[in-house]
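Practice problem 4.
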């Protein structure tokens, strides 16, 4: 806007060949300074360490396979994977049988 035009006119009057580059460099440095202030002044959020709880749950001997101990999401993922595997294997067998017999010519 207006600030950009005024700054560009000032910089271009000082040195017409380096004007735009110098202006972009100044803008980049200002943006970098603002970003640095924002990153270093923000408070860190404390996160609880949940690893020991997860280790205890997965090492518990309750007869359940380890790939299903994660809950309902793991069960859904397992069932979906099994269904896709069976469908894929069936399709491969179908294509092999279809390729084994010659096509009828009309």
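Answer key:
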């Amino acid at each position: 806007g207006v600030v950009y035009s005024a700054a560009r006119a000032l910089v271009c009057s000082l040195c017409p060949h380096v004007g735009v580059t110098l202006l972009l460099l100044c803008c980049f440095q200002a943006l970098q300074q603002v970003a640095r202030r924002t990153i270093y002044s923000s408070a860190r959020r404390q996160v609880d360490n949940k690893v020991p709880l997860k280790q205890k749950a997965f090492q518990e001997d309750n007869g359940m396979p380890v790939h299903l101990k994660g809950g309902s999401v793991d069960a859904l993922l397992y069932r979906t994977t099994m269904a896709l595997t069976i469908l894929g294997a069936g399709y491969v067998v179908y294509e092999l049988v279809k390729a084994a017999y010659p096509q009828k010519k009309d």
